[in-house]
């Protein structure tokens, strides 16, 4: 898979949230959703605060493709389940976002939805 460039990683590290819009499946348009994003050691992650039943998450998993925009980023991405780094992602959420909200991203409902994003070029 294609890697993120340094400028993209910096932007994704600094931006608070991005708009993620799942790729169409069967011709259906999918609404985008603002989500928190993490850049950790050159890798990019998101989670669904509402867990696996969130519309954007379910729709994104149908094609494993989406589009992200925000923080001067505008790119198509491939999505991959990524649970090998859950502890690292937990810590990164608590470090980047206010703890009173970030703790919600580490509960089992959200934790089970860790996705890694890869740019499609």
Summarize the helices and strands and which ones pair or pack.
Layout (H helix, E strand, L loop, with lengths): L5 H9 L2 E6 L10 E4 L1 E3 L2 E4 L8 H9 L1 E6 L2 E9 L4 H11 L2 H4 L5 H4 L3 E5 L2
Antiparallel strand pairs: 1-2, 1-5, 3-4, 4-7, 5-6, 6-7
InterPro entries: UCP028498 (IPR016888)
Protein name: DUF2255 family protein
Organism: Lysinimonas soli
Q: Could you describe the 3D structure shown?
A:
With 121 residues, the chain is an alpha+beta fold. The chain has one domain (6-119): Electron Transport, Fmn-binding Protein, Chain A (Pnp Oxidase, Chain A, Roll). It contains 5 helices and 7 strands. Strands 2-1-5-6-7-4-3 form a 7-stranded antiparallel sheet, with helices on both faces. It comes from Lysinimonas soli. InterPro entries: UCP028498 (IPR016888). This is DUF2255 family protein.
Unreliable spans are none
- Overall pLDDT level: 94
Helix-strand topology string? HEEEEHEEHHHE
**Alpha carbon gap, first and last residue:** 9 Å
Radius of gyration: 13 Å
Beta strands, count: 7
Count the helices. How many?
A: 5
Work out the strand percent: 25-35%
What is the CATH C level class, in words? Answer: Mainly Beta
Number of domains: 1
The secondary structure category is alpha+beta
Shape: globular
The CATH topology corresponds to: Pnp Oxidase, Chain A
Pfam family, one: DUF2255
Protein name: DUF2255 family protein
């Amino acid at each position: 898979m294609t890697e993120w460039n340094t400028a993209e990683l910096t932007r994704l590290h600094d931006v608070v949230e991005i708009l993620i819009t799942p790729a169409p499946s069967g011709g259906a348009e999918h609404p985008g959703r603002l989500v928190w994003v993490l850049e950790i050691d050159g890798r990019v992650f998101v989670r669904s605060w509402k867990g696996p039943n969130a519309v954007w998450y379910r729709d994104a998993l149908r094609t494993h493709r989406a589009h992200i925009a925000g923080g001067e980023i505008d790119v198509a991405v491939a999505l991959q389940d990524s649970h090998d780094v859950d502890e690292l992602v937990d810590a990164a959420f608590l470090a980047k976002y206010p703890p009173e909200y970030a703790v919600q991203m580490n509960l089992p409902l959200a934790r089970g939805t860790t996705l890694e994003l890869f740019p499609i070029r």
